[in-house]
Amino acid sequence: MLKKVFGSAVFGVEATTITVEVNVDSGIGYHLVGLPDNAIKESSFRIAAALQNNGYKIPGKKIIINMSPADLRKEGSAYDLTLAIGILVATDQIKAEELEKYLIMGELALDGNLQPIRGALPIAVKAKEEGFKGFILPKQNAKEAAIVDGLEVYGVENISEVIGFFDRNEPMEQTIINTREEFYKNLDFPEHDFSDVKGQESIKRCMEIAAAGGHNIILIGPPGAGKTMLAKRLPSILPPMTLHEALETTKIHSVVGRVKAHTGLMAQRPFRSPHHTISNVALVGGGSYPQPGEISLSHNGVLFLDELPEFKREVLEVMRQPLEDREVTISRAKFTVTYPSSFMLVASMNPSPSGYFNDPGSPVTSSPAEMQRYLSKISGPLLDRIDIHIEVTPVPFEKLADERKGESSVDIRKRVTAARELQTLRFEDSETVHYNAQMNTKQIRKHCKLDDASMQLLKTAMERLNLSARAYDRILKVSRTIADLEAANDINGSHISEAIQYRSMDREGWLG
């Protein structure tokens, strides 16, 4: 007897429906075909134990299971439940009249309990697209899958519940989530607040500009100046995620199994802070079966690289293309996977190996040559892709001892959100550009027009600082954001001059 049951495979952030065909014939043998990996091949032992512990068995007949399309490699243990139900139906141990209306996934423990799977959200999206009535999966992933409207989602704890549902029409509890209500309910404010920061008003201004336009920023300063403290508070002033952004971000985290069971939809912008020993594959993604890296897990959020020169040079260089294209494409011999990676890069670094500027008053000093050697670990092309460079100086004792609270993240966020709303209107006709940092050359020429005085000011700066064409574009983008924060239609000289100040590492003589 031949029976079909449906599962799904995830490639990148998209799912592909897998048809599991189970054929039972006279003879003896268990044959699993269709490019399964070792985890799927081992499933026969898990399935046999799980069925036996729940009063069923794999009969001594010739069982051939084909996972179609057969030329597509299948990976992982999430097909256990799919295969087990297919075997039970094909061997007439249970009846399942509506089996083909459901997509079934789950890893089996030996007692029949279900373990969580990866990629539940992309799979649910695909199931709805292909007209499935429902999706049966482990309970831990149910909230994540239930984000998709118009699909019945059943979270189960044991295979016996699935058998009862099909064979005896025993009801299972459907997981229902009001996606919008869940999203807005979870827009909790982050724990870190800018009101905790003493002094550093100019740096706060830089962070506000960076947040308003989605600009990459690098903070340069000695130890204890507050670089990490400021970076950790950046998400608190970013505009709340839209529902579309939340779905995009949740999809990526779902693929790597990072979505918490009790939340379902991610409402907070991600903040990722990898250690400087990270490999290039872990940063951009990859492996024999490509998985998202840190830059994709930071999508719609912040990637913080602390102590930037301590990262291996080849690790930093692989970020150049994703920073420009806002997506990363990983190619293998048989397939290509593209992951989105539209993130804000926030980097911090000391100006020298000793940690201090070339200052006789510093506890430890480094020579200009040592500073130059240290800074040369970061390539010019990478620095070109960072819109804002700013020096962070230590806070004097008087400001540290001041008990007055600074401006809160709530107040700064209001201005940032207002500026982002202007940008949303400006780019409403574009599908790929939503804020100033994403502008391409054509859009820069259209939206960043300068008067004669501003153009002369920029020309002088370009000549004196020997800036590249990319740095020229960066200055225009930042000045457009500064104008948006003031709700100004046109860019003027003050906006340009402030934007030029935020190119510290381009200045001649910066090393003293």
UniProtKB/TrEMBL annotation:
| Sequence intervals crossing the membrane | none
SUPFAM superfamilies attached to this UniProt entry: P-loop containing nucleoside triphosphate hydrolases, Ribosomal protein S5 domain 2-like
What keyword terms does UniProt attach to this protein? ATP-binding, Nucleotide-binding
Q: Domain AAA+ ATPase spans what residues?
A: 213-396
Give one Pfam family.
Answer: Mg_chelatase_C
Q: What domain of life does the native source organism fall in?
A: Bacteria
Q: Which InterPro entries match?
A: AAA+_ATPase (IPR003593), CHLI-like (IPR045006), MCM_dom (IPR001208), Mg_chelat-rel (IPR004482), Mg_chelat-rel_C (IPR025158), Mg_chelatse_chII-like_cat_dom (IPR000523), P-loop_NTPase (IPR027417), Ribosomal_Su5_D2-typ_SF (IPR020568)
Q: Which molecular function GO terms apply here?
A: ATP binding; DNA binding
NCBIfam families in alphabetical order: YifB family Mg chelatase-like AAA ATPase
- Name the protein family: Belongs to the Mg-chelatase subunits D/I family. ComM subfamily.
Q: What is this protein called?
A: YifB family Mg chelatase-like AAA ATPase
Question: Which species is the source of this protein?
Answer: Subsaximicrobium wynnwilliamsii
